[in-house]
Amino acid sequence: MVSSFRPFGASKERYGDDRHPDLPWGYWLVSSGSVPGEPPLVDEDGREWGSVREAFWMDRLGLPSIYTGWMNGIMEFMASYLAIADGRFVAPEERVRDIFLGDGHLDQFFRAYLLAAGLVNDTEGRPTPEGRSVLLMLIATRTREDAAEAVGLDWILANRTAAGHVERIAAAEQIERRERVAARMAHRFTTDTIGGDPAVKLIGLRITKEIPVRSTLWTMTWPDGDRLARDRFYLWLLERIDRWDAWSELVTRGGARALTEHFMKLAFCDRFAVAEFDGSDELRSN
Question: Does residue 40 fall inside a structural domain?
């Protein structure tokens, strides 16, 4: 059955009838700046735009200018989603798990939005001719920071945080420095994947009669595939690298459960410390 709705923000003609489907979206915009290609960009109705992305955001999608601060991140996510959908068939279960962290309602809403916008079809969810043109445009207009991660699941995973690109680079450098120290320790935490789930392991050096061997003393996994949560926990551990030997002794004395309970206590201590640092009088009065 053919869908009866007409995509919002689109002309009555199909995109391929009045636009070249193999060229990036917005190729018809004309630069009126002193340097070729420089904004403002003028469309066929004489309206001026600061960028191709701005024209797509406001004119094609009909989104208000007051939210242009969100524009880049949302369109990078849209580009990654379209790239995944265009490159291969993605089963609904995989799409919900990897792209939307298990939130099926968010997956349905975003797909319905792209469907209503005419950027994906209503059968397999693959990009329409206009959707592919939009994907080409979004890839061609990426910032240097966003281009550090490949379009697709790599970008989505790397940007599941409020931190910007500069902060993420600084964190990665900090992790690299501390991991060089950790590599020489008898007991150390490390990241891993167990049965497809992200994990953190505590590895200890055990002396046997034959040779010293490393064994896993403690493990925590994230069954929902939340690599961001795993990575944040690992960074938290690296910030406390001076405590690793003591925590290993805790496992030796009380077992893996003792360390898990200890981490829970520390997590709540951190929350109270942050609340007091933020000036919460309520905590002090209770």
Answer: yes
Alpha helices, DSSP H, located in the chain = 15-18, 52-55, 68-87, 92-99, 104-116, 129-140, 153-158, 165-182, 227-238, 244-254, 256-277, 281-285
Backbone angles phi, psi at 26, to 5 degrees: 90, 5
Domain range enclosing 78 = 15-158
Q: Do 167 and 173 contact (CB within 8 A), yes or no? A: no
Phi, psi of 41, rounded to the nearest 5 degrees: -105, 135
Pair 114, 60: CB distance under 8 Å:
no
Say if strands 41-42 and 48-49 run parallel, antiparallel, or are unpaired: antiparallel
Answer with the one of 143, 158, 173 that is the final residue of a domain: 158
- 216 φ, ψ (degrees, to nearest 5): -85, 120
Q: Is pLDDT of 206 > 80?
A: no
pTM of the model: 0.58
Q: 217 by DSSP, 3-state: which?
A: strand
Domain count, the chain: 2
Distance CA 79, CA 72 (A): 10
Per-residue pLDDT tens for 190-199? 888 888 888 9
